[in-house]
């Protein structure tokens, strides 16, 4: 208790040789975010490869949980492999996979279609799950004619619109998604995630899904179902594969309002790395309410401490 | 006992048009869904406007549509056979430029525009330097290693409105300006969810472009269009009129009618645009105009009963 009688707010511990060892011993599975933790754009962050090898050699399970819906699990496995890291598809839980699983667990009828404002990853996961996807990157080439004799058609059998990060966003897609949600009875509005910006390249941040979702939320006056972090929806699938108590998991991420909150919501330990979107100043700012258990500069700090 | 505010009275169907007309000095009309739909004039509009003018009423036209400048709207009115002067038109494109003028936006700063020609023309008229606009609709980005998108550090404001050429380049440019240029303003011409750009159907409106930038910057913009009273205060000041002497006529509850109510004017909803009677009377609707009628030409047909 502090002087005002309030429970003292836990202060994140800087990772050190002492607490790193304790953390390692009490953790069976490490959950890693990808952008800003493992890589930045297509560039691996220093020391990541060696750190993952070390953790595997100590018998730890490695899981990768990413909000970036541009790739499917399979495409992410290929990306890992191309960067020299051996990771299998089923160790990866992407928000593209989460969107397809959401449809599955909610018994989305197979005769209905899904309109996608987002990347190839979402389309692939939908197809794998047996659903018919429309839209995606292809619609980035379509234009709109605003003339009185031109009517913008949309497929009345679309039963869900899935929105994720989309560098090919354009007015055609905004209009298509808007019409489906506003006019097709019962049409679902699903967001892979709400991240405002992310490291899509190594040198700077770029607008994330939060931007595309913001656009569609505004035109439809509706809020989406969010399947990515900090929603713990993906955790259910993780637990189906790894029968480990979440208290024995450690979520490692660079973003407080998605990665760390996800870890906390699920009952995991949490470690913030400063190699991505969050700086020490942001973490320690009085307006920040999300306190991870630990923080450190980057994942490879484990190599120094263990 | 907690104070309770009286619920606003339910909208009355307009029965005595003359009484309403006599009680005000100025009529403010929305355009889409009130005067025209797409490029087609709504029935009886020219005669109605003529009648009001002949009775000495001032007419003003306030539209959230930022795609045209006042001058370009003047031409649209002319093409449709209506005599309306530029000075009577207040589009949200004009509002954005007027707002920057009102805060003495420094002339050595630039404005990045995510929007169409109307905004560019009004900024130019007001003497501001702009970047962006429809041209940036042709720009592409490549998300590959070593690629860095530069942005002008002299941009002091980003203005966002309806943009059919919306793309990731513009979103990133605007986002970088707002996040990285100290004190950079984020101004929205309007936040309309959907709009009747053609008379056949609804189209995603300026609200979607603004929502995109609010999503990436995690900042709320300053809105210059309806229902913000900026344009109301501006024209009341310019024409020296009392707001109690104004009747706002529009087809949209959450922009036109709310605009009128925020400005303490009388409000008349017309059902010739996006709002139907069932939407007005739905339990989910909390915005009640003073009156409603099917279209503005009802002014000609609804007369006080003569005893």
Structural class of the secondary structure composition of chain B?
alpha/beta
Low confidence ranges of chain A: none
Q: Give the fraction of residues assigned to helices of chain B.
A: 25-40%
Percent strand of chain A equals 15-25%
Could you state the order of secondary-structure elements of chain B as H and E?
A: EHEEEHEHEHEHEEHEEEHEHEHEHEH
The CATH superfamily of the largest domain in chain A turns out to be HAD superfamily/HAD-like
Oligomer: heterodimer
Distance from N terminus to C terminus of chain A (CA atoms, Å) equals: 34 Å
In the CATH hierarchy, what is the architecture of the largest domain in chain B at level 2? 3-Layer(aba) Sandwich
List the total number of helices of chain B.
11
The N- to C-terminal Cα distance of chain B equals: 47 Å
| Low-confidence runs of at least 5 consecutive residues of chain B | none
Binding site for substrate (chain A): 229
Function (chain A): Photorespiratory enzyme that dephosphorylates the 2-phosphoglycolate produced by the RuBisCO oxygenation reaction.
Protein name (chain A): Phosphoglycolate phosphatase
Cofactor (chain A): Mg(2+)
Please tell me about this protein's structure.
The complex is a heterodimer of chains A (306) and B (307). Chain A is of the alpha/beta class. Chain A folds into 2 domains: 13-67 and 230-305, Rossmann fold; 97-226, HAD superfamily/HAD-like (Rossmann fold), CATH 3.40.50.1000. Chain A has helices at 17-26, 48-57, 73-82, 95-105, 120-128, 171-183, 209-220, 233-241, 256-266, 280-284, 301-305, and strands at 13-14, 29-32, 39-40, 43-44, 61-66, 92-94, 113-117, 132-135, 158-163, 188-191, 197-198, 206-207, 225-226, 249-253, 269-273, 294-296. A 7-stranded parallel β-sheet of chain A has the order 1-16-15-14-2-5-6, sandwiched between helices. In chain A, helix 4 (95-105) runs parallel beside helix 5 (120-128) and helix 6 (171-183) packs across helix 7. The two termini of chain A are 34 Å apart. The model of chain A has no long low-confidence stretch (mean pLDDT 95). Chain B is α/β, with parallel strands linked by helices and 307 residues long. Chain B has 2 domains: 12-64 and 227-301, 3-Layer(aba) Sandwich (Rossmann fold); 94-223, HAD superfamily/HAD-like (Rossmann fold, 3-Layer(aba) Sandwich). Chain B is built from 11 helices and 16 strands. In chain B, the strands form 4 sheets. In chain B, strands 1-16-15-14-2-5-6 form a 7-stranded parallel β-sheet, sandwiched between helices. In chain B, strand 15, helix 10 (277-281) and strand 16 form a beta-alpha-beta unit. In chain B, helix 6 (168-180) packs across helix 7. Chain B is elongated and about 70 Å long. The chains are: A alpha/beta (306), B alpha/beta (307). Chain B: It comes from Vitis rotundifolia. Chain B: Substrate binds at residue 226. Chain B: It is an enzyme of class 3 (hydrolase).
């Amino acid at each position: 208790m502090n002087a005002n009688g309030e429970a003292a707010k836990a202060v994140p511990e800087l990772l050190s040789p002492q607490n790193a060892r304790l953390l390692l011993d009490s953790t069976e599975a490490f959950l890693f975010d990808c952008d800003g933790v493992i890589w930045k754009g297509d560039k691996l962050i220093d020391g990541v490869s060696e750190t993952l090898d070390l953790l595997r050699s100590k018998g730890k399970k490695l899981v990768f949980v990413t909000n970036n819906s541009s790739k499917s699990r399979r495409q992410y496995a290929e990306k890992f492999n191309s960067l020299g890291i051996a990771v299998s598809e089923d160790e990866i839980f992407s928000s593209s996979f989460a969107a397809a699983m959401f449809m599955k667990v909610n018994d989305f009828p197979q005769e209905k279609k899904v309109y996608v404002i987002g990347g190839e990853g979402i389309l692939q996961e939908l197809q794998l799950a047996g659903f018919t996807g429309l839209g995606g990157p292809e619609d980035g080439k379509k234009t709109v004619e605003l003339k009185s004799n031109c009517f913008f058609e949309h497929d009345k059998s679309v039963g869900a619109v899935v929105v994720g990060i989309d560098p090919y966003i354009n007015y055609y897609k905004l209009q298509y998604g808007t019409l489906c949600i506003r006019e097709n009875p019962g049409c679902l509005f699903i967001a892979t995630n709400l991240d405002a910006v992310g490291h899509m390249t190594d040198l700077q941040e770029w607008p994330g899904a939060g931007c595309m979702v913001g656009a569609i939320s505004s035109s439809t006056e509706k809020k989406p179902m969010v399947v990515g972090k900090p929603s713990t929806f993906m955790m259910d699938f993780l637990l189906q594969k790894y029968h480990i108590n979440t208290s024995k998991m450690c979520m490692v991420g660079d973003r407080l309002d998605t990665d760390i909150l996800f870890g906390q919501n699920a009952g995991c330990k949490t470690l913030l790395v400063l190699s991505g979107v969050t700086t020490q100043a942001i973490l320690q700012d009085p307006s920040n309410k999300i306190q991870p258990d630990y923080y450190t500069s980057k994942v490879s700090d484990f190599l120094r401490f263990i | 006992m907690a104070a309770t505010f009286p619920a606003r009275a339910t909208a009355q169907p307009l029965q005595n048009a003359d009484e309403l007309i006599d009680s005000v000095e100025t009529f403010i009309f929305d355009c889409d869904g009130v005067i025209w739909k797409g490029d087609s004039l709504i029935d009886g509009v020219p005669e109605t406007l003529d009648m009001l003018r002949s009775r000495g009423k001032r007419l003003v036209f306030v539209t959230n549509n930022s795609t045209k400048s006042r001058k370009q709207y003047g031409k649209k009115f002319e093409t449709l056979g209506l005599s309306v002067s530029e000075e009577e038109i207040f589009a949200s494109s004009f509002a954005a430029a007027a707002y920057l003028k009102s805060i003495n936006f420094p002339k050595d700063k630039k404005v990045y525009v995510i929007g169409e020609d109307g905004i560019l023309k009004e900024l130019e008229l007001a003497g501001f330097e702009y970047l962006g606009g429809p041209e940036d609709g042709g720009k592409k980005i490549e998300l590959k290693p070593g690629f860095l998108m530069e942005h002008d550090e002299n941009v002091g404001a980003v203005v966002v409105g309806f943009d059919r050429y919306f793309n990731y380049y513009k979103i990133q440019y605007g986002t970088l300006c707002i996040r990285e240029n100290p004190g950079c303003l984020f101004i929205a011409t309007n936040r309309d969810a959907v709009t009747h750009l053609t008379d056949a159907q609804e189209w995603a409106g300026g609200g979607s472009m603004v929502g995109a930038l609010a999503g990436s910057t995690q900042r709320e913009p300053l809105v210059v269009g309806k229902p913000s009273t900026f344009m109301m205060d501006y024209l009341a000041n310019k024409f020296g009129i009392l707001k109690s002497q104004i009747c706002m006529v529009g087809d949209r509850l959450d922009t036109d009618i709310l605009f009128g109510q925020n400005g303490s004017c009388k409000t008349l909803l017309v059902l010739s645009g996006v709002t139907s009677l069932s939407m007005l009377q739905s339990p989910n609707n909390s915005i009640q105009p003073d009156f409603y009628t099917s279209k503005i030409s009802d002014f000609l047909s609804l007369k006080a009963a003569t005893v």
